[in-house]
Amino acid sequence: MDASSKSYIETVSKHCYSQLTYYQFNTSTLKVSEQYRAGRLSALKYVSELTFKYLQEEKRLREEFRQKLIEQMKLHTALQDGEYKNGLYDGLNEMLNVKA
């Protein structure tokens, strides 16, 4: 998930929690029917669960990517020591250490 997708989902999540609080606790001041309020709360709870799912997915993808890099390094342990192996390991290690 790219940074803009993650940022979008985080923004939606924050807005959703704000709206959930508003519709959940302002029962006497809201000028909407109980059915509308219930429908709105259902939609917001769904969106809340969906944003949580996708933010968890983003964390899982990051770890899966790192594991693939580590697997690639392990796959090439049998290579003879030399410039090629050094370059391969340096490149993969560099990517493992990139901070997002």
Shape estimate: rod-shaped
Going by helix content, strand content and strand pairing, the class is mainly alpha
Separation of the first and last Cα atoms: 12 Å
How much helix, percentage-wise, in residues? over 70%
Largest sheet: none
Indicate how many domains the architecture comprises: 1
Q: Which regions are unreliable across 5 or more consecutive residues at pLDDT < 50? A: none
N-to-C series of helices and strands:
HHH
How many H/I helices? 3
Mean pLDDT: 91
Q: Which value, in Å, is the CA radius of gyration? A: 23 Å
Which band does the percent of strand residues land in?
Answer: under 5%
Q: What is the β-strand count?
A: 0
Give an account of the 3D structure.
By secondary structure, this protein is mainly α. It has one domain. Helix content is 79%, strand content 0%. Helix 2 runs antiparallel to helix 3. The longest helix has 42 residues.
Task: Please give a quick description of this structure.
The protein has three helices and no strands.
Overview features:
100 residues; rod-shaped; 3 helices
Spell out the blueprint of helices and strands.
Layout: H1 3-25, H2 34-75, H3 83-96
